[in-house]
Specification:
Shape: elongated
Number of domains: 2
Radius of gyration: 33 Å
Number of helices: 9
Helix content: 40-55%
Structural class: alpha/beta
Order of helices and strands: EHEEHEEEHHHHHHH
Length: 281
C-alpha cells in the first residue's frame, strides 16, 4: 500500500473524486481523532466484501513520539495512476498533513490562467510564508504526464511514420496492380464490345471481379493485423490494437483505391474502338 499525505483542498485541486464519505477538513488536526482516506483500489484489495467506512487502520510505523500512524476511515476517493498510464493504480491510503509531520511536500496549484501566468505569483506566496523554503522543480501536470510517456511516444511516432509509408506504398502498389490487371483485359473488353455488350455492363463486370479481390485482400489483411497487433498492446493506453475505427478506416481507404484503380482503366477501355481493342495484343 502506498501512503500519501494530503491537505484538505488537495483532492478538489488535483481532481481526485470523492466516492463515499467525506474528505479531509480543517478539523483534522493534531490532537483530533486520526482520520484516513482510502483509494478504490485499496478498498478492493483490503476490504473486498465489507464496508471500510468507520473502520480503524493502523500502519506499521510511528511518528510524533511513538504515536502509531493510521486512523479511522472517513472516506473513499478515486484511484490515481502514480506509477504510469500503463500501470494499474496501486492501493493508497491518505493521511491528513496536519496530523503528521513530514520533511518535504509538493504544492499543487490550480487556476484558470496559463501556468506560466501564475507560477511566479504562487512562488511569491510561498516565499512570504517561509523565505528560507527551498522551491524548485515547477511543472504542470501536463508536463509530468508527457514525461511519463515520452519514451513510448517516440516509439509510437516511429511506428506511425513507418505505417504511413507502408500505407502509401500499399496504395501505389494496389493501384498499379489493379490497373495492370484491367489493362490485360483490354482484348476481352474489345470482344465483348464487338458482340454488343453495354459499356456500363462491362464496367460493372470488371468492378465485380475487383470487389472479390478487395474482399479477399481485406480479410487477409485484417487477419494479419489482429495477429500482429498483440505486439503493440504495450504501447497503447486504454486502447486496443484492434481498434475498429482505425482498422475500418484503413480497409475503406485501400478498398476505395483498389476500386478506383479498376474503374478508371475499365472506363477508358470501354471507350476504345472494338477493332483497336482487338489489335491491342
Amino acid at each position: 500500500m502506498e501512503v500519501r499525505v494530503a491537505t484538505p483542498g488537495y483532492f478538489q485541486t488535483i481532481g481526485i473524486p470523492l466516492k463515499r464519505g467525506r474528505l479531509f477538513s480543517s478539523s483534522d488536526v493534531m490532537g483530533a481523532p486520526q482520520a484516513v482516506l482510502l483509494s478504490e483500489s485499496a478498498v478492493r484489495h483490503y476490504f473486498p466484501n465489507e464496508d471500510p467506512l468507520g473502520r480503524a487502520i493502523r500502519l506499521g510505523w510511528h511518528f510524533d513520539e511513538g504515536k502509531q500512524a493510521g486512523g479511522t476511515v472517513v472516506g473513499i476517493v478515486g484511484d490515481v495512476k502514480d506509477a504510469g498510464l500503463d500501470e494499474a493504480s496501486p492501493p493508497e491510503i491518505y493521511i491528513p498533513h496536519a496530523q503528521i509531520g513530514i520533511g518535504n511536500m509538493a504544492v499543487v496549484v490550480r487556476g484558470a490562467l496559463a501556468p506560466s501566468a501564475f507560477a511566479t505569483s504562487a512562488e511569491a506566496v510561498l516565499r512570504d510564508l517561509d523565505p528560507e523554503l527551498p522551491i524548485g522543480n515547477l511543472k504542470t501536470l501536463e508536463e509530468i504526464r508527457a514525461a511519463s510517456v515520452s519514451g513510448r511516444r517516440f516509439y509510437v511516432l516511429l511506428l506511425t511514420l513507418f505505417a504511413a509509408v507502408a500505407l502509401a506504398l500499399a496504395a501505389v502498389g494496389i493501384f498499379g496492380v489493379m490497373s495492370h490487371a484491367v489493362t490485360q483485359q483490354t482484348r476481352e473488353i474489345g470482344i465483348r464490345m464487338a458482340l454488343g455488350a453495354d459499356r456500363d455492363h462491362v464496367v460493372r463486370m470488371i468492378l465485380g471481379r475487383a470487389v472479390l479481390l478487395v474482399i479477399a485482400g481485406v480479410g487477409l489483411g485484417l487477419g494479419m493485423a489482429v495477429a500482429t497487433g498483440r505486439a503493440l498492446a504495450g504501447l497503447l493506453f486504454e486502447l486496443t490494437p484492434t481498434d475498429p475505427v482505425t482498422l475500418g478506416g484503413v480497409c475503406a481507404l485501400l478498398a476505395a483505391i483498389a476500386l478506383l484503380a479498376s474503374y478508371v482503366p475499365a472506363r477508358r477501355a470501354t471507350r476504345i474502338d472494338p477493332v483497336v481493342a482487338l489489335r491491342a495484343e
